[in-house]
User: Fold these one by one.
Assistant:
Number 1:
Amino acid sequence: MSNFIKSYQANVGLNHTPAYQVSGQPFAEAGVDASSAASVDFPYVTRWFQVTNKGATSLKVGFSSLGVSGANYFTVDASGSAGYGVSQVLELKVSELWLLGSDDVDVVAGLTSIPASRTTTADGTSWSGSSGVG
């Protein structure tokens, strides 16, 4: 029984429900140049995030470098006469986003209290190498 960790001393992890039930700590990064692949690294796992594309070309958003250079990404429209291209608010637990294709991108997120290192696997950070991630 000496290896037993009392619940009040345990570190939070990806399945720690209370970390997702409260409002997220604010995070914003503006003016990211993703003309070539660029990452936005979060200090804590996200509760949610949203991407705004203010550039004139469409933007690929993925969860790994391989994802945006391959086929595991989603697209945010270019800005135009109708306004900026904006993704939906996505409730995903990630520690990084990869961006490719636009020279002016803003990312806003709500962060949990879970350290980003909790998403590191044998294949890399934020589920790199996983099916659907790349």
Note: The first strand starts at residue 25 and ends at 34.
Number 2:
Amino acid sequence: MAFRLSNGIPSGLTASPTMRLSTSAYHTSAEVAAFLGLKQNAIQRWVAAGVVDSKHGPGQSQLWIHWTSELERHLDGCAAFEPRMVSVRRLCRDGGKPPDEVLRWTRDQGHEIFRLRRRTAYRFYILPSRQR
């Protein structure tokens, strides 16, 4: 990475937006947080809970998020509520589990996680996968 930076060679995983490949779908956790209007530690908690996939660049401590239109649709708060959706808050209350545990289980089971705006707040909702 140092060679790339010193010679002005763009890379997919560099914190400098001017040196990042324009085709790179990876963004820093700080960039994703700014896009969603959140603090960076919220994104880091989502990564720990399994809501968002991430990776570290070689020799970097920077957290990189693979930002896609699908991920944006799930997290920007603009998705439409569907009657089959269940709030994470309700699942936590009914099951006596913390949100991180519920979100990890949801991801492991293949269900979809959405962040929706409900009235004045954003909440996580689970859309169960259709069982065949």
Note: Residues 40-49 form the longest helix (10 residues).
Number 3:
Amino acid sequence: MKYFSTKTYGHNIGLSCAFRQPKAESHCKYIHGYSLSFKFIFTCKDLDENNWVVDFGSLKPLKIWLEQNFDHKLLIDKNDPMSQQFELLEHSGLCQLVLMDGVGCEAFAKHAYNFANNYIKQLTDGRCWVYSCEVSEHGANSAIIKEE
């Protein structure tokens, strides 16, 4: 038997970022942005001494990480052929640049999942882990990564 709990950082908290898909044939090749939403599902086999999967009060470092990486940031793939131009924008004070190994909903879900899973496992001495992470651009588009 497994227990599950969820934590959502919704569109309303303002994780507004811009990014682009340089290899896209569509309009996604242009800089565009969303106020992203992140939903984490945590799981464990045994509850803690409070009968919780995870203490929601202990998730402040996760929210801080999300803000540092997605709040009013320009997210660019580290292999973007125009990355030097984006670095010039940052050096000019025109943006807060975050270079990532992959951008887009699926990549953002993977980055957030990896950070959260490492954090939760360390926090709970391995008792709890992240089952899945869903990232939504808006009500119609989202991507999910989950444990196998």
Note: The mean pLDDT is 96.
